[in-house]
């Protein structure tokens, strides 16, 4: 006795779910990146002299292969010194990511939960 099972529709639905899941995760990542950018610009621990370090901070999100990245970057040549130098006194990027990580992860979970 042979039993045949057609899984074409199940595979199609699974593929559709994957596409919607990635889109949902990217939406959440973009939103988190924008929130991180605003937060970092407002909560920077230094006093602006030119405003360039604050102005060039950017929330970023990207899909790279099987990974989604979200964070905030500084785009001035001296941003690395603000972040890593001076005993961490002027660091804002890493603390911002740490502050938002739990909420971003919850947002990812909520977004996937709504896809059912």
Give the biggest sheet: 2 strands, antiparallel
Question: What is the average per-residue confidence, as pLDDT, rounded to a whole number?
Answer: 91
What is the radius of gyration computed over CA atoms, rounded to a whole number of angstroms? 20 Å
Shape: elongated
Count all strands and give the number: 2
The amount of helix comes to 55-70%
Task: For the record, give the distance between the C-alpha atoms at the N and C termini, rounded to a whole number.
Answer: 36 Å
Structural class: alpha+beta
Q: How many domains make up the 3D coordinates?
A: 1
Question: Beta fraction of the residues?
Answer: 5-15%
Low-confidence stretches: none
Strand order of the largest sheet: 1-2
What is the number of helices?
4
Compressed to H and E, one letter per element, the order equals HHEEHH
Short recap of the structure:
This protein has four helices and two strands, in the order H-H-E-E-H-H. The chain has helices at 8-42, 52-55, 79-84, 93-113, and strands at residues 58-64, 67-73. The longest helix is centred in the N-terminal third of the chain and has 35 residues, at 8-42.
Describe the structure.
The protein has 116 residues and is of the alpha+beta class. The chain has one domain (8-113). The chain is 57% helix and 12% strand. It has helices at 8-42, 52-55, 79-84, 93-113; strands at residues 58-64, 67-73. It has a two-stranded antiparallel sheet with strand order 1-2. 18% of the residues are buried.
């Amino acid at each position: 006795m042979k039993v045949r099972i057609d899984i074409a529709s199940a595979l199609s639905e699974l593929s559709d779910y994957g596409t919607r899941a990635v889109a949902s995760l990217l939406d959440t990542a973009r939103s988190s990146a924008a929130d991180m950018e605003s937060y970092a610009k407002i909560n920077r621990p230094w006093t602006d002299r030119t405003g360039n370090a604050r102005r060039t901070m950017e929330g970023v999100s990207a899909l790279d292969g099987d990974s989604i990245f979200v964070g905030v970057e500084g785009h001035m040549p001296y941003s690395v010194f603000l972040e890593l130098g001076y005993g961490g006194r002027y660091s804002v990027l890493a603390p911002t990511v740490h502050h938002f990580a739990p909420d971003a992860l919850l947002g990812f979970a909520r977004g996937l939960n709504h896809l059912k």
